[in-house]
Design a protein that fits this description.
Strand content: over 45%
Largest sheet: 5 strands, antiparallel
Oligomer: single chain
Radius of gyration: 16 Å
Strand order of the largest sheet: 1-2-3-4-5
Structural class: alpha+beta
Number of helices: 1
Length: about 100
């Protein structure tokens, strides 16, 4: 992300043409599994004629052969990653208890 902290996506979908601007920033999280990574992607949408930010938060964890992704979308810029970390930890504990 250091070399690409902003990008855009363009194309068409069921609603027609779209031109989406995205800001990307890594986020620090507690060590989870063997490797973990967190990021926040921020995009913008128009609501009643004004621009609103939407934050897409991600934590990705690798633990052995398991790949876990925990995500959420929300509009609170000050929201931390603690709820996502807690959910990722719950999933890892579940895998330890029942590895099948």
């Amino acid at each position: 992300m250091g070399g690409c902290s902003a990008f855009s996506l363009t194309g068409t979908d069921a609603d027609g043409f779209f031109d989406l601007r995205v800001l990307a920033e890594p986020r620090a999280v507690s060590p989870l599994g063997e490797q973990s990574y967190a990021a926040r992607l921020t995009t913008f949408r128009q609501v009643d004629g004004r621009s609103e930010r939407i934050h897409l938060d991600y934590i990705v964890v690798r633990d052995g052969h398991n790949h876990i992704e925990v995500t959420r979308s929300q509009s609170d810029e000050t929201a931390g990653f603690a709820p996502l970390e807690e959910r990722a930890e719950e999933i890892l504990r579940g895998l330890e208890e029942d590895p099948s």
